[in-house]
């Protein structure tokens, strides 16, 4: 059952692919901001934005990590835009089993863009000198439904990979040490 519609601030990052020069400053800034402690490491593999080079089209596509999906999609589409072919995966922001993108390199757990939480302007936008990324806020009526947080998404991935019993046993064992 959906909740009551409420006014919410919708945060949006617009991408102008033609302005992206592939400098990857956005990846470095995002990974540093989300390191623990903050800025203690800069590892693009941990970034929630990745700049993908679509080889057939010779274009850089900055992608922000979206939803985790336990199953890869079955179809493959090709989009033809302005005379160039783009694979479906070029624009897909999912953390999915068929590629390494948007997975924490050590644990394999999914990464998801959190819009830098309380930061006024997201870090990737702040460092994008060519202006390929721009930030906008607008008010929208939205159903007041909770969206899964980082812990919930990580647990979902662990459950899918290891099964409920193993996760429960491990959690019980770790909790005893607290
Ligand atoms: S910082 Fe901007 S120009 Fe550089 S790779 Fe990222 S999106 Fe592209
Ligand atoms: S908005 Fe923040 S969390 Fe999302 S990709 Fe940009 S820097 Fe990373």
Essential attributes:
2 domains, two-stranded antiparallel ribbon, 6 strands, globular, binds iron/sulfur cluster, alpha+beta, 22% helix
Q: What is the spatial order of strands in the main beta sheet?
A: 1-6
Low-confidence stretches: none
Strand content: 15-25%
* Assembly annotation: single chain
Shape: globular
Q: So how many helices?
A: 4
What this model shows, in words?
This protein is α+β, with helices and mostly antiparallel strands and 178 residues long. The chain has two domains: 141 residues, no CATH class; 32 residues, no CATH class. The chain has four helices and six strands, in the order βαββββαβαα. The strands form three sheets. It has a two-stranded antiparallel sheet. β2 and β3 form a beta hairpin. α3 packs across α4. The longest helix has 13 residues. The chain is globular, with a radius of gyration of 18 Å. The chain starts with a strand and ends with a helix. The site of one iron/sulfur cluster (SF4) has 13 residues, from α1 and α2.
Give me a quick take on this structure.
The chain has four helices and six strands.
List the helices and strands and how they pair.
Layout: E1 5-15, H1 25-33, E2 49-54, E3 59-64, E4 78-81, E5 84-87, H2 123-127, E6 133-143, H3 150-162, H4 164-176
Antiparallel strand pairs: 1-6, 2-3, 4-5
Helix pairs in contact: 3-4
The structure holds iron/sulfur cluster (2 copies).
